[in-house]
Amino acid sequence: MIDLTAHTTFRLPFQAQSVVELRDLESAPRQLAQIQSPTVVLSGGSNWLQLATPFQGTVIRPRLSHVQATSVGTAVDVRIGAGMGWHEFVMQSLKAGWYGLENLALIPGWVGAAPIQNIGAYGVELASVCTGVLAWDFKAKAMVTLSREACEFGYRDSVFKRDLSRYCILEVHLRLQQKGTTTVDYGAIRSAIEAAGGDLSCPQDVAAAVIAIRQSKLPDPDLIPNVGSFFKNPVVTHEQCERLLALHPELPHYPDSQGVKIAAGFLLDKAGWRGRWMGSVGVHTEQALVLVNQGAPSVDDLRALVRTIRAEIQARYDLSLEIEPTQVGDTLG
Predict the structure, then answer these.
(1) Domain 2-62 belongs to what topology?
(2) Measured in Å, how far apart are the chain's first and last C-alpha atoms?
């Protein structure tokens, strides 16, 4: 068995029978067509929980890191290999004068994982700039290009997340702008830019503010094992939001197409979860939305912690917290 624990940021034990690394688009279809065993795709492992081990199959690592850009008027269409680091590409795009990703700076992981989760932060989601995805379809046994509509993006959701065994993402297609229009009214971005003496209309200043905010709130997974935000921010009705605001008038909340999005981390804070532990896993002392471990995490401890947190939030606020990271091999319930 091959130990892949170090390739996941939560560091749950993970061993697999075999590993296939994809290095270029030309040979990838041949490599993928030859795989007969069950498969799972492991990218940067930063939003990924392997809950059953060992894995009796093949782990695929799409290590493609190419970037191809084509100007289209004032926009630019970019094709990015799935193995490129997400933050690396965000910073490269800013340097090139391609805008639209600045709010998504410093999100860990690889480009290929971004559509699975429809990553989002500070009022921007990948879906707003993604035009399509090139993937290997294990069902069709062929390369396919899925349009943005076919990706079925939702809040931290996509067709890829709902069927992890069907696709291996090889390339992500984005349309970025060569004239930046910034989004600065979500979270603390505006105040962070103004405090730093920056320009609200400058994408580079927005990215710098996002990086500073994330570094102040979220632990570095290289130093403290974690998968970032562990629970989704609930989307509630306006009536539910008013009820929660009566309890906590300072509750952060934002308009959403389905109702009102509220801050799960705030509610976890109010419930006293920051800094609490169950065995080998616990809640980060600075950010209640982040679960961490002491270096040798137990799936049973994680399951118990998650179950207890969700039950308490349900009882206290009549809210069901959804788990954000992709769960592989089993679920936390």
Answers:
(1) 3.30.43
(2) 27
Cβ(194)–Cβ(200) below 8 Å: yes
Using DSSP's 3-state secondary structure scheme, residue 268 falls into: helix
DSSP characters for 125-148?
Answer: EGGGTEEEEEEEETTTTEEEEEEH
Q: Where are the domains of the chain?
A: 2-62, 67-177, 226-328
pLDDT at 188: 87
Inform me whether the pLDDT recorded for 307 exceeds 80: yes
Give the Cα separation of 224 and 268 in Å (integer): 20
A 10 A CB-CB count for 181 gives 9
CB atoms within 10 A of CB 65: 17
The catalytic position among 61, 79, 156, 214 is 156
User: Which of helix, strand or coil describes residue 171?
Assistant: strand
Q: Is 229 a catalytic residue?
A: yes
Q: Is 272 exposed, middle or buried (0-12, 13-18, 19+ CB in 10 A)?
A: exposed
| 170 exposure class (CB count in 10 Å sphere: 0-12, 13-18, 19+) | buried
Question: CA dist 75 to 87, 178, 239, Å?
Answer: 21, 5, 41
Question: Hey, what CATH topology would domain 226-328 get?
Answer: 3.90.78
Per-residue pLDDT of 204-244, as tens digits, reads 999 999 999 999 888 999 899 999 999 999 999 999 999 99
Residue 147 annotated among the catalytic residues of the structure: no
Verify whether residue 280 is a known catalytic residue: no
Options 61, 125, 229, 274, the catalytic residue: 229
Which of 102, 125, 171, 324 does the annotation list as catalytic? 324
Q: Please determine, looking at this structure, whether the domain spanning 67-177 carries the CATH number 3.30.465.10.
A: yes
